[in-house]
Design goal:
The chain is mainly alpha-helical and about 90 residues long. It has one domain. The chain has helices spanning about 1-30, 50-85. The chain is elongated, with a radius of gyration of 19 Å. The protein starts with a helix and ends with a helix.
Length: about 90
């Protein structure tokens, strides 16, 4: 039971990180960074046209997969709690 609750916690943290990842990249670029390896020099940076949509599709897919896992675990936890009820 505790392990399932810990997994739910890590899934929720992962969801927040997935949603915040593009903001962290933009923040890093704005402060003179390289966008975590995305671009060495912002002036001469050449990023392929498909890089943005590819990253977006990957993040959206990971987000929905984690939401699916979260739903499955929560339904299982609810069924366990329903069966162990005194009433």
């Amino acid at each position: 039971m505790f392990l399932l609750r810990a997994i739910v916690f890590f899934i929720l943290v992962s969801l927040v990180l997935i949603l915040g990842y593009p903001l962290i990249i933009v923040y890093d670029l704005a402060n003179g960074g390289d966008g975590f390896g995305l671009c060495d020099n912002i002036v001469t940076c050449s990023i392929p046209i498909s890089e943005g949509p590819r990253l977006l599709i990957f993040l959206i897919g990971a987000f929905f997969f984690l939401v699916f896992l979260l739903r499955l675990i929560m339904k299982y936890l609810n069924s366990l709690e329903e069966n162990s009820s005194i009433l």
